[in-house]
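#struct-queue
[09:14] JT: dropping the first one here, sequence first, then the structure tokens:
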Amino acid sequence: MPHASPRARWSWLFDQPYLLLSLTSLFWAGNAIVGRAAAGQIPPVTLSFVRWLGAFLIVLPFAWRHLAKDWPAIRRHLGLMVGLSLSGIAIFNTLQYTALEHTTALNILLFQSAGPLFVAIWSLILLGIRLTLAQALGILVSMIGVLVILLHGDLTALAGIDLNPGDLLFIAAMAIFGFYSALSQKRPAIHGLSFLAFTFGCGALCLVPAFLWELSARPVAQINAANLGSLAYVAVFPSVLAYLCFNRGVQLIGANRAAPFFHLIPVFGSAMAIAFLGERPQLYHAFGYALVLAGVIVAARKPKTRLAE
């Protein structure tokens, strides 16, 4: 019996939306932790620019043939493609890293839970797609689970959350990413690697003016092992791998059904804290995880009556 090629062995993964979106959340959870650790060490525009330039250079050798073939379609939809590059690549991530300089990781994880709501709003505005009852219920249940985990089982602690400029900046960032998530369903029918290469490269190019300004306005990041490790991580895992998985997941099941997977980000984040930072698992972790997973399963389930998505 002939052995399957490496490409064939991995091809099944790109037809598994739930696994792809779970991996996306895992990689983005790591991005929040690394971004917070890099705050004050690497200026936010520098971190975003180097991240996307690095991701573009990683993808390009695999994508250039597809990119050349798909260029006529990209050129016909150039405005849309630039809009996706600006919103989901350049602006969202720069605002996220800027916010991480001014707020706590707890607040960031809380506000990430609003991601599905922004996706639902933009899906309605741009595409006329409404949440189903199951999707709305699933989002609510999983959001409660996130709050249970992050507030250590004490939901009354939510009243003690103080908003600061970093929080407001991150809420704006999530609204912009919700726009990207909904708009990405209008992307032209091009290869996934073509889409990544163009949006990564265009996003990095859009950041050049802000990057040059930051070089003159703020101290330059030091070149050391920690900073190089942070840059390498954000270029590979939350960029190339996460966006490849996320874009394919949205393509397979639509933005509204994909959005509840945002709630897995704080689940993975808290699990990382238990595994790597010595935090002791508590009963509220198990209860919160169960609620999040139940909500995601309900919200991401395919509707019995097929709706336009």
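[09:21] JT: and here's the second one, same format:
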Amino acid sequence: MNEQRDNLIVFLWKKRKPISIITGIGAVISLVVSFLITPLFLSTAIIFPTATSTVSFSEQRNAKASAMDFGEEEQAEQMLQILQSSKIRELIVNRFNLFDHYEIKQDDPYKNYKLGKAYNEHIQCSRTKYGSIQIDVLDKDAQLAADIANKIVDLYDSVKNEMIKERTIPAFEINIRKRQMIEQSINDLSKKLDSLSEIGVVTSEARANLFEAYNSAKSAEDKSFFKDKIDVNLKFGAEYDGLVMLRDEKTVKLSDFEAIYEQAESDAYADFNHKFVVEKAVKADRKEKPKKSIIILVATFATFFFAIFYFLIAERLKELRKIA
């Protein structure tokens, strides 16, 4: 084993000049290539999801979450899914004309594939260990990288609100119809009560006074008047009381429904802020990629070991030819 090691060291010493030349050439080439690579600048924005995305009109609703609370794992996962959605990507692509920026031709049959690949290489959203969402944008234009990151942050609210409205607006329209039905029912009951009142039907409390007034009447004309009133109330009094009770129940129901209606209206038409912005993206003053030193070191060592491997293989082949 020691002999083989010594032989290897002797062999490498003999080949030190060509190995050094090849390694030097590799280092020079990697240096040139590192300068040819387009530098990319990194801008980062960090946001937290909110625990709730609505204003509550009920003491019981969202009892565990208020507008001041930060979201947890579930809300962070939802935020990440929206930020990575095709809706936001489409808006960003159109807003910043990324087809042209990434030099993808519109008539290219694989334009969408190339765009998606370029987008994912330059724009990434990920969860941090603290539960926040980090938006990283790499671009050759430092200002554009910051603008894209901040625009994604801004779009999150509008896209989520749009998604919410797809469900809450139809739900609110159902509540509108329900409220109108209750109000119409109350109006119909009130009209029936008014028609009964026009023919002399009175409340149950007033009916007791009719009998007292009848007994206290002095003239036959007054007795006849109160007798007619009593007859009408005896005939329609029960119906009148039933209508009053039903109207009162509907009125209470409408009063209780107001909180539900206001909640549905708020959910349907209010544009909420669904995030806390921890850090807005700023224009980078130093490039993120490429790291020239790393490229040169990796390429130099790779060339060095390649040269050793090449000369070892060449020497072994020479020995095999002698044997053959």
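[09:30] RK: nice, looked through the second one.
[09:31] RK: Confidence is low (pLDDT under 50) at residues 61-65.
[09:31] JT: good to know. Residues 189 and 243 are 6 Å apart (CA to CA).
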